[in-house]
Amino acid sequence: MPDGKKLVIVESPTKMRSIQGYLGDDYEVLSSVGHIRDLADKRDIPEKDRAAFGKYSIDVEHGFTPYYVVSDRKTKTVTELRRALKGASELVLATDGDREGEAIAWHLLETLKPKVPVKRMVFHEITKDAIQKAVDDTRELDISLVDAQETRRVLDRLYGWDVSPVLWRKVGSGASGQTLSAGRVQSAATRMVVDRERERMAFVSAKYCSISATASRADTGFSIRLSRIDGAPLASGRDFDDKGELKRAVVVLGPDEAASLATAVDAAGSATVASVEAKPGTRRPYAPFTTSTLQQEAGRKLGMTAKIAMSVAQSLYERGYITYMRTDSTNLSAQAVQAARSQAVALYGDKAVPAKPRMYASKSKNAQEAHEAIRPSGDTFRTPKDVTGQLGRDEQRMYDLIWKRTIASQMSDAKLETTTVTLEQTADGKKLGFTASGTVYTFKGFLEAYE
Fold first, then answer.
1. What's the pTM value of the predicted model, to 2 decimals?
2. Mind listing the pLDDT tens digit for each residue in 109-120?
3. Domains, the chain, with CATH or none
4. Which is catalytic among the residues 22, 56, 324, 399?
C-alpha cells in the first residue's frame, strides 16, 4: 500500500485552498470542480448502445439505467486526480453533504476506481474546528442520497428534452438572451403558470365602491373607512369569488350611490365615537434561513436574483463565513443557539432573549435535515462590523442579512397593541359605521435586530 499523503477531493478550488491550510502537509487537497461525469450526449454513445439508450441517454426499458461519460472539459481534471491517487495512502471524498455532493463523490469512485482505503468526509462550515472534526468522524458513502440525485437527474432529462423545445418555440430566450430549458421543476412550474393564466382568463371582475374620510379632533387627524351601513357590512374585494359573485350577504355600493352618500357624509359633518377597543398581540421571529427563504429575502431586501444570491452565499461559505447554503433545515446547533443568544444579550440587553432557547421545526423531512440552517460560521459569531473590509459589497450585505436573521431567531417576541376606533354617523337617512385601526409596539424584541 502506498505510504504517501492522504488525498482529499473537494468540489471547489476556493474551498480546496482553505481546507489545505487547516489539514497541513500530511494531506493533499484537490478539487473536482463540480461534477466530472454526466449523462452523455447521443453522439458520445457507442453505436452498439444507441438503440437501448436512445435520445435521452437513458435505457427506459430496463430500469431507467443512465449512460454516463466524463465530460470533455473534465478530462484534464480526472487525469490530475488519477496522478495524485497513485501515490496516495488514502482517499478522502470531501464533497458537499447534500444529494449533489454525494453523487459527485460516487462518480469520483466510479471513475477513479481507487485501490486504497476510501472515506467519506462531511462538514457544513469551513472552520479549523469543523474540518478537524470531519476528518475524525468520517462515514461510508450514502447510496440513498446518490440514488435520490440520480433519480432527479434522470427526471430532468426525461422531461426537459421534450418540454424545452416547446419553450424555445413558444417563449423564446430567457433573461439576458439565455436559452430557456425545463426539467422536473421547471416543467411543473410551467404547468402552474399555464393553469394560473387560464384562471386569469376566466376571471370575472366585479365593481364595488367604498368611502374613506378623515376624522379630526383638535390638531389630530386620521383616516377612517366606511365599514357598515345600517348594521350590514360594506362589500370589499375579498367578498367576491373569481366569477364575480358574492360569497356572503353584504351591501354593494355602486358609483352613483357611493358619490351621493359621500356628499351626505361630508354635509353631516360630525360623528360620535361608538367604541375604542385595544387588543394586545405578539409577533414571533422567523426561523433561521433555509435556501429558499434566503433567496426570497435576498430578493426582497437586497434586490438579488436567486442565482446571484446563491453565488454570493457560496462565496461566503467557501471562505468560511457562513455554514452550508443549500439546506432545508431550520435547526441550529447547541453552540450556534448559545452564540446567538449571547450576542443578542450583549447588544440589546437581558430582556432580548426568552428564558428558553427557541426550537424551529423544519417543514421538510428529507435527507438534508442533517444540515443546519444557514448561519454565521463558528461557535462565536463575527458581527457585520467585525468583517467590514474583508468582504465585497454584496458579500457584506448578504452576511449582514444572515447574521441579523440568525440573531433575531433566538430573540424575544415583539409585543404590540392594536387599537380599533369605531365612529358612527347618520347621513342620508342611514346609520353609518366607520372604523380605523392603528398598531404600536410596546416592546420591540427581535425587531431590534431584524425587521
1. 0.81
2. 999 999 999 999
3. 6-36+71-139 (3.40.50.140), 149-202 (no CATH), 212-284+415-448 (2.70.20.10), 291-412 (1.10.290.10)
4. 324
